[in-house]
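Researcher: Good morning. I'm working through a list of sequences from a screen, and I'd like to move beyond sequence-only analysis. For each chain I'm collecting a predicted structure so we can compare shapes side by side. This is the next one on the list. No need for commentary yet; just the structure.
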Amino acid sequence: MAMLQQIIDRRLSGKNKSIGNRERFLRRYREQIGEAVRRAVSGRGIRDLEQGEDITLPKRDVSEPVFGHGQGGDREYVHPGNKEYVKGDRIERPQGGGGSGSGSQAGDGEGGEDDFVFSLTKEEFMRVFFEDLALPHLIRTQLAEVPEWKSHRAGFVSDGNPSNLHVVRSMRGALARRIALGGDSRREIRELEAHLLHLQRSPRVSDALVQREIRETEARLEELRSKARHVPFLDPIDLRYRNRVKVPVPSAKAVMFCVMDVSGSMDEARKDMSKRFFMLLYMFLTRHYEKIDLVFIRHHTQASEVTEEEFFHATETGGTVVSSALTLMLDIVRARYPSGEWNIYGAQASDGDNWHQDSGRCRELLADHLLPLVRYYAYVQVAEAEQNMWEEYTQLADSHKNFAMRKVSSAQDIYPVFRDLFKKERGPA
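Model: Good morning. Structure tokens for this chain:
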């Protein structure tokens, strides 16, 4: 026999009752929203990157299937606002001729539909903005001095927080306790019931001795049944709570070196593109990785480690000796970030203009010292012309898988290049 079960959810709806529909909409039109976000980013300034956005989706992309009525048949319609006509009335043709005039001009050309405008919150915008991005080759390093902890299940305990109560395990223990405590009594009850039935069916049931034995048996039965009823259904000793313990896990400690050229050949447009790239990188890292160090290095003829504020807003300039920045980066790595304990990353932005003899020195520093220590190193040239630095770095790209280089010639190229450099690694098929 089949049973029909109905589940009624009586939970009160939250203030944002459409949150479920909103999440489904974001999942359904993921590609269209991602494309709209990429278009929006290309026209933003540095300080406006981390904001929400009103994105527009073409009507054709958000259309839904509908049911329609075929031709023929009798149908009745109820139109709102009718105060003059009843069924059977004939409606006269509107005055004004064949409908020519200004109204016809609105219908000229292709018929169109309004696009769908959808407002993304700041959190939703940033989630789409950095979707499918990750630090390449990130691995778990040894336990840090202050290790990360992960919670694991560790059986059950008899004391704990009520929110951790395991109902099934508790009821199972209660059932086992009731079976254990009442086993002897139930067996004796069954034996006494059988004996009582035998006495009641005995031919000598009217004898005084038999009647006395019947009364004694009934009294014993009542005593045993009362005792069984007093066994509690659920006792505090039956309660079991989920137990969780914290165990140390290897922490993914990472450091990113941001190296920016601020020499005289870097005009405001090129500096702006460099800052845009590093701002994207900065927001991406701080959003996705809680424990990551950022080291900011600016250089012209000399390199210096600076604060975040100085890195993005200082106006110091000069000649160009790129190797000074790479040498400083190597010194900092050796002093503060052992490669056996840290995932080391580097990102460099420059226009490629460098003292000719220094470009070879940069290639040697990267090939012999830095690239063996880092997980990934990205070089972005904010100029189209291929200068001596690009030529030297090209030799590294052919022989080192953890080195990548790209060109950016306009602000619109920054986001595609950024996504290409930091796209999430795909596992084997």
